[in-house]
Amino acid sequence: MFGVITLVFFLFTVLPADPARVMLGQRTDLETENAIRKELGLELPVGIQYLGYLNDLSPISWYKIKDTESFFYLNPNNYQYLTLCSFSNSDLVIKTPYLRRSFQSKRLVSEMITEAFPKTALLAFVAIFIALLLGIFIGALCAIYKDTRFDKISLFFSVLGMSLPSFFVAILFAWLFAFVLADITHLNMIGSLYAVDDYGVGVHIELKNLILPAITLGIRPLAVVVELTKNSVLDVLSQDYIRTARAKGLPYRTILMKHVLKNALNPVVTAISGWLASLLAGAVFVEYIFDWKGIGVLMVDGLEKYDFPVVMGTLLYISIILVVINILCDIIYGWLDPRVKLS
Q: For residue 315, how many other CB atoms are within 10 A of its CB?
């Protein structure tokens, strides 16, 4: 995380766009620009700006509470804090990480991410659920009925699912199911989790807008899970302890459920953890095409408008998700396979 924070800061610090001009737009003057640069600390050396950025992100930070002109002034409108100890003109505080404010809307970036992330999380979990539910079932059947017509057809569609780009599938599904077959499916080409009624008054949840984006996102993980499950099940079925279980007369269903599938799921967990992390990070193309107001759309809008705090905040949020999911994945390994030691 420290490496990501450092990279993100210096990447967007050396960009040619002037944050003061981005915030003020076309109607600006030199005096106002200088005031904005001073407020953002752009006149300070890059090293001081970097320390200020780390100070903003750190839960335990050092600030000047009373000196409103200082770059390290703690503005109570930006976050809640609790003072740990005080010095002459500065305090050591514990606070929520501060991702700064959007150049365009002046809103807290943390609030914007908090609003967008639940929509991306819902979309990602539904897509992964579809991929897991169908992928493990189809993959196990492919292993049981190896080299049959069912296995060959599943292999064809798995390769096809892994090969098709997500943005192409999104456009194809939107055109086919929400335009050509709209009278049958009653689905919308674009739309987010929340929709406004015809009079523009009430806001309600529109779950049908979730169907096409979730299926589109789930296709590639589904194809991967099918192939991994098939290969892993075939590998486990060839182990000695499975032959022993068969020789003892255990029912085939019991062998599959209690011995084969549990021991075959480690590579599936690895693949799904990576896919879930990437989907939670924001399925940019799919969200943008279906206008699903999640992290992906928020990041694209920030890039288009040179809204650097929004882009930096979403990137750091994505990185945290990746780290947390990798840790959870290691814990799940130990539960699935006792041979994996947790240190």
A: 19
- Most confident residue range from 32-36, 78-82, 322-326: 322-326
**Residue 63 to residue 258: CA distance in whole angstroms:** 57
Q: Do 280 and 314 lie in a common domain?
A: yes
Among 106, 293, 276, residue whose Cα is nearest residue 194: 293
- Of 317, 276, 299, which Cα lies nearest the Cα of 1? 317
Q: What is the mean pLDDT of the chain?
A: 80
Give start and end residues of each alpha helix (H) in 145-281. 149-163, 166-175, 182-185, 211-237, 240-247, 252-254, 261-264, 266-280
Can you state the angle between helices 2-13 and 308-336, rounded to 10 degrees? Answer: 160
- What are the phi and psi torsion angles at 162 (to 5°)? -75, -25
Q: Give residue-wise pLDDT tens across range 23-70.
A: 666 666 676 667 667 667 777 788 888 888 888 888 888 777 666 666
100 assigned to some structural domain = no
In this structure, are 235 and 211 located in the same domain? Answer: yes
Average pLDDT over residues 245-267: 77
CA distances from 1 to 8, 94, 230, 326, 330 (A): 10, 19, 36, 13, 18
> For 132-150, how does the pLDDT look when each residue is reduced to its tens digit (9 = 90+)?
889 888 988 888 888 888 8
Residues 297, 301: Cα–Cα separation, whole Å: 6
Q: Residue 289 belongs to what H/E stretch?
A: helix 284-290
**Domain that residue 8 falls in:** 2-95
Whether the pLDDT of residue 181 is over 70: the answer is yes
Residues 87 and 199 occupy one common structural domain: no
Domain total in the chain:
2
Put residue 307 in one of left, alpha, beta given phi > 0 → left and psi -120 to 50 → alpha: beta
